[in-house]
Write a structure and sequence with these properties.
Elements lengths: L3 E9 L6 H9 L6 E8 L5 H9 L6 E6 L4 H11 L2 E6 L5 E2 L3 H5 L6 E10 L2 E4 L7 E3 H9 L10 E4 H6 L12 H11 L3 E13 L16 H14 L3 H25 L4 H10 L2 H5 L6 H12 L1 H15 L1
Parallel strand pairs: 1-2, 1-4, 2-3, 6-10
Antiparallel strand pairs: 4-9, 5-10, 6-7, 6-9, 8-10
Length: 319
């Protein structure tokens, strides 16, 4: 088996509009010693044809794997199992990276490395907060993420393959929203340090028809993901992290997703009904963080309808 510095894993499902640009950005890296693994998850459009055409004359080692449609988590897991790189990088089929993406991430020393990303809405780019550290322990990073002190997405990381494979860290099949955060947390738990570079090299393209934008109330499924993660931390006697999830991360995720639904015009009664069905109001009340956010939650729980009217009034003032 060939050994590469990096394996780049790209899951694809019906991404014919975007996958060409994605692969072009991966092929044209100013970095040597990497492989490309494309996993076609049962596409019914011509994505696979575009992939084959893009890679047929490519000198970079690559694999094209076709499987029946089983979801992005299984596709990424297939890529992990097929990889032989010392490090793993994940790039979604509708995103793209700058030519120095791998070069900026790779140092061959730390368990993880991290770059910044920008969200792309049409022609508009939105860059997110930068980090103050050049090196951070995974322990500190996990705590910052659970307190939502940092903006983070799993694709910002380069992962040491040995950590992923020895500890059988995989994406949970069937999860629509939050499977990537769970994967990153579990991987980070087994490592030590993250090298940070504040350069934007990943472009996260937003589409109205993306999985994230069409999940409806399945966005609330992230609560179950974090509850599973809390159990994972308890298994390793990290009750402090498990409690942080219950008293901070989950309430903040509930509140953020609720406001997302309100902002995007979802019916108030339907949102509240779904929250009651999932016992999210009770979970929201467990927040123990800063007093300002705690007050917001308290006001909402006292009178959800009044909070909604005030929120909508604020929304109209900024639109």
């Amino acid at each position: 088996m060939n050994n590469f510095k990096v394996s780049v894993i790209v899951p694809v499902f019906n991404a014919s509009q975007y996958i060409g640009k994605t692969l072009d950005s991966i092929i044209n890296q100013d970095f040597d010693g990497y492989e490309i693994i494309v996993v076609d998850d049962g596409s019914t459009d011509n994505s696979l044809d575009i992939v084959n055409e893009a890679l047929k004359s490519c000198e970079i080692p690559h694999q094209i794997i076709h499987q029946e449609n089983t979801g992005v988590s299984v596709a990424r897991n297939t890529g992990i199992d097929a990889s032989s790189g010392d490090y793993l990088v994940f790039i979604d089929a509708d995103d793209y990276v700058s030519s120095n993406h791998l070069k900026t991430l790779y140092n061959g020393k730390t368990d993880f490395s991290l770059i910044l990303y920008a969200k792309k809405y049409g022609d508009r780019l939105t860059s997110l907060d930068s980090y103050t550290e050049e090196m951070i322990s995974t322990e500190e990073f996990i705590k910052k993420e659970l307190n939502m002190e940092i903006t983070f997405n799993f694709f910002q990381l380069m992962y040491k393959s040995r950590i992923i494979k020895l500890n059988n860290v995989r994406f949970t099949p069937g999860t629509v929203y939050g499977e990537d955060t769970e994967f990153a947390h579990k991987a980070l738990h087994y490592g030590d340090e993250i090298a940070i570079n504040n350069e934007v090299t990943y472009y996260y393209v937003q589409h109205s028809d993306s999985a994230v934008n069409t999940t409806e109330f399945r966005r609330f499924g992230v609560v179950g993901v974090f509850e599973n993660l809390a159990e994972f931390y308890r298994k390793y006697n990290r009750d402090d992290l498990a409690n942080l999830i219950i008293t901070s991360r989950i309430p903040k995720a509930i509140f953020a997703n609720m406001n997302f639904f309100f902002y995007n015009g979802y019916d108030f009664d339907e949102v509240i009904s779904k929250m009651r069905e999932l016992d999210l109001l009770g979970k929201l009340s467990k927040f123990e963080g800063d007093s300002k956010f705690r007050l917001k939650i308290r006001l909402f729980l006292l009178n959800p309808k009044l909070y909604y009217k005030m929120w909508m009034k604020f929304k109209k003032s900024i639109d």
